[in-house]
Design goal:
The chain is of the alpha/beta class and 435 residues long. It is built from 11 helices and 21 strands. The protein folds into 2 domains: 321 residues, ANL, N-terminal domain (Rossmann fold), CATH 3.40.50.12780; 95 residues, ANL, C-terminal domain (GMP Synthetase, Chain A, domain 3, 2-Layer Sandwich). The longest helix has 22 residues. It starts with 15 loop residues before the first helix and ends with a helix. The mean pLDDT is 93. The structure holds 5'-O-[hydroxy(phenylacetyl)phosphoryl]adenosine (DLL).
Length: 435
């Protein structure tokens, strides 16, 4: 059993020495546990010539082998489990947005750890025992619903476990139960805003104060739009099933990056191509090591998420390191006519125009071996001004930012698909059309 216990009040404010001592001890235990119980770790450590006893702490991490998403798939379902199934009390699964979903397991200690980091997450977002928290993340194999649920209960808040979907009911509950905090994907909240409008309910007039959003990339302009439209403060929370679920990192009241719960999950940033560690502040791929997980420990997991570490101390007083908002993944990059483009760049440009809504789709096709990119975006319902002019301006801005020409199509309000969970925004049909 990996020993850990965390005082949720003080864990985010440890001195650097105390934190490092804790991380070193926990890493040593994690390495022993993983190498002893998981054949894949044993093989990888042997192949790199690293004896587990030689690992004394965090400074040894760069010597250790990486773990990849493909390892979870190849070892599926239980190959990466370090504890017998008798000790595993729960299974969850990743959402499979980038391929086959992966199965992850939790011992009772892992569930307690998850509850504790989720309680810390909610505290960072300003939630208190007096809050009424509507959990509109999906419950089930997806980690969002149950993760937030346990954390909110442990904090002593009043939890409404509604799960995702049934949007009209969500809005009724927000109104009738005096909900103060809602948790869901940002794209689902955008949808709830529209439904509320259709039902003649102004969210700004309800007691709702806080939105806790995550599980998919969303931009700073999107956060501002949500805050203005709903009259709430919107917080970004980050996590992934392979590590624990939500509860890896969270924004605080300063809204400048996300604090990582680094006494349990150690972050490194590496060059996505070479895997070499990058200095603090430089953008690269986030690599996470679990320091206290039992059932499925992860050593140097390549998350595929792109971010950077923030070195300056946060004015909120918490001492944990921060990461920048994750706006894209390594595998999100679209190569269009030889130019690298991230959907997040397109979102930034679209949201800089007041005339369009935050609902958009990016369609890639190929016409006689030439890539075509079409961006469909909905017009804001109150703004049906000069649409040609809007299209022209957006196309020019996109050309400046991306260096290639995109066709902009304005779609009528409410015509693009809405999601109850993670939004799908990119439709790449280039290969289909080539065959
Ligand atoms: O999405 C866990 C979660 C649930 C996080 C609820 C936050 C809130 P997965 O389904 O395994 O787990 O997907 C993990 O989603 O590697 C990122 O690419 C993306 N992701 C999660 N949170 C954020 C965020 C959950 N705040 C994958 N910003 C991760 C950007 C995010 N991307």
């Amino acid at each position: 059993m990996i020993e850990w216990s965390t005082n949720v009040e003080s864990a985010d404010c440890l001195s650097a020495d105390k934190l490092r001592k804790r991380q070193d001890e926990r890493l040593r235990a994690t390495v022993q546990h993983a190498v002893q119980n998981v054949p894949l770790y044993r093989e990888r450590f042997q192949a790199c010539g690293v004896a587990p006893e030689s690992v004394s702490g965090i400074e040894d991490l760069p010597r250790l082998p990486f773990l990849f998403k493909s390892d979870y798939r190849e070892q599926s379902p239980y190959g990466l489990f370090a504890t017998p199934l008798q000790q595993v009390v729960r299974l969850h699964s990743s959402s499979g947005t980038t391929g086959m979903p992966t199965v992850v397991g939790y011992t009772q200690n892992d569930i307690d750890l998850w509850t504790s980091v989720m309680e810390r997450t909610l505290r960072l977002c300003g939630v208190t025992p007096s809050d009424v928290v509507q959990v509109a993340f999906g419950y089930g194999l997806f980690t969002g619903g149950l993760g937030v649920h346990y954390g909110a209960e442990s904090l002593g808040a009043t939890v409404i476990p509604v799960s995702g979907g049934q949007s009209d009911r969500q809005i009724q509950l927000l109104r009738d139960l005096n909900v103060t905090t809602i948790c869901c994907t940002p794209s689902y909240f955008l949808h709830l805003l529209e439904r509320a409008d259709d039902l003649g309910i102004n969210l700004r007039e309800l007691p709702l104060q806080t939105g806790i959003f995550g599980a998919e990339p969303w931009s700073e302009p999107m956060r501002q739009r949500i805050e203005d439209a709903a009259g709430i403060r919107a917080y970004d929370i980050y996590g992934l099933s392979e590590i624990i679920g939500p509860g890896v990192a969270s924004a605080c009241e300063e809204q400048d990056g996300l604090h990582v719960f680094e006494d349990h999950f150690f972050p490194e940033i590496v060059d996505p191509d070479s895997g070499d560690p990058l200095p603090v502040g430089e953008e690269g791929e986030l690599v996470l090591t679990t320091l206290s997980r039992e059932a499925v420990p992860a050593i140097r997991y390549r998350t595929g998420d792109i971010t950077a570490l923030i070195s300056d101390p946060c004015p909120c007083g918490r001492t944990t390191t921060r990461i920048r908002r994750v706006t894209h993944r390594c595998d999100d990059m679209l190569i269009v006519r030889g130019v690298n483009i991230y959907p997040a760049q397109i979102e930034d440009v679209l949201l800089s125009s007041e005339c369009v809504s935050p609902h958009y789709e990016i369609h890639l096709t190929r016409d006689r071996s030439l890539d075509q990119i079409q961006v469909r975006v909905e017009i804001d319902r109150d703004d049906l001004g000069n649409t040609d002019q809007v299209c022209d301006q957006l196309a020019k801005r996109l050309h400046q930012v991306m260096g290639i020409k995109a066709t902009i199509t304005l779609a009528e309000s409410m015509t693009l698909a809405r999601s109850e969970g993670k939004a799908r925004r990119v439709f790449d049909r280039r290969c289909e059309e080539q065959v």
